[in-house]
Q: What sequence folds into this?
């Protein structure tokens, strides 16, 4: 089962709710979910702390008992909290929603890259074993995660800066960690991809979508910045399945920045295709699929794959391996290229 979903009603919910909506609080302001749970736990048993939205500055604190929520709101609302860095919290009651799962999808989900017919796109199932998956998860969990609004990340080789969607090539973080060496060796052995594989990959971003974020949280449509990375991009999926959707916008509607959410997608003209990424699979983006197609993870909690319904896991980790570009991009898709704008 996925995590519960909460709403903050336009009018204040009555005091029978054990759930609190807390603003000015979250990883984006330097407060971990563990720390928030610890502070609110002084008022009663906390069932969980969840992201209220994608901002990283608002959370839902869910208590076992409504009396605990009442006490916490009374003591913490509108007052500086020394245990949370002196921040003044803005709190009101929240209610748990029981939305029906919408399993209808406007685009069919494929289970193989060949079904999509997107040039340069490959998907290899069971790229690693279950034991190797466990070892990789253990390796990254021993290292510190950096908190972002939607996920937690680790960067190796070079840090990817999300505010500018690029890397600083002058700041080398060191060689890639030893735990990805078997993956790199296996990638180099993929001769069946007709030369689409970069032999030298020097940047790794590990993303951790964990149970402190609702399973419906995904990624917005984007193309990995052309000037940041060259050649092929590999994405290894660990421990949780998901759907990845690809979009190719027409030249007439493309203006550099397409819709960042599904709310205004009707105003743009694009082709949509989706693929199912099972755990332990690796996805390769090269050529047209890398340079001209936007990719993203839809904000679903349940995905319909063929005739099956698959619920998003409580955790998904992805390893994205890339090669940092040292000069401007000279690809064949200038309308999508920041180097050739």
A:
């Amino acid at each position: 089962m996925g995590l519960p979903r909460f709403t903050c009603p336009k009018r204040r919910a009555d005091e029978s709710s054990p759930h609190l909506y807390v603003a000015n609080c979250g990883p984006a302001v330097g407060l971990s979910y563990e720390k928030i749970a610890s502070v609110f736990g002084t008022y009663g048993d906390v069932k969980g702390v969840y992201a209220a939205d994608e901002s990283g500055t608002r959370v839902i604190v869910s208590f076992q008992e409504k009396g605990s929520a009442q006490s916490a709101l009374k003591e913490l609302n509108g007052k500086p909290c020394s245990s949370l860095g002196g921040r003044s919290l803005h709190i009101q009651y929240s209610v748990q929603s029981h939305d029906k799962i919408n399993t209808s999808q406007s685009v069919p989900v494929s289970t193989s890259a060949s079904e999509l017919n997107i040039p340069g796109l490959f998907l290899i199932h069971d790229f690693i074993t279950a034991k190797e998956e466990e070892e990789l998860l253990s390796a990254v969990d021993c290292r510190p995660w950096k908190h972002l609004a939607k996920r937690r990340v680790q960067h190796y080789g070079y840090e990817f800066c999300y505010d500018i969607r690029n890397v600083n090539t002058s700041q080398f973080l060191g060689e890639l960690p030893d735990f990805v060496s078997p993956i790199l060796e296996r990638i180099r052995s993929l001769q069946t991809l007709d030369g689409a594989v970069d032999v030298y990959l020097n940047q790794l971003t590990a993303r951790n979508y964990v149970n402190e974020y609702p399973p419906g949280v995904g990624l917005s449509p984007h193309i990995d910045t052309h000037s940041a990375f060259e050649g092929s991009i590999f994405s290894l999926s660990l421990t949780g399945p998901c759907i990845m959707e690809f979009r190719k916008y027409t030249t007439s509607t493309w203006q550099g920045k397409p819709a960042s959410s599904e709310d205004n997608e009707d105003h743009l003209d694009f082709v949509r295709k989706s693929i199912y990424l099972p755990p332990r699979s690796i996805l390769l983006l090269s050529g047209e699929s890398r340079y001209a197609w936007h990719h993203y993870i839809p904000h679903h909690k349940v995905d319909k794959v063929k005739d099956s319904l698959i619920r998003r896991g409580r955790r998904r980790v992805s390893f994205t391996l890339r090669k940092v570009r040292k000069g401007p991009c000279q690809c064949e898709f200038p309308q999508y290229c920041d180097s050739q704008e």
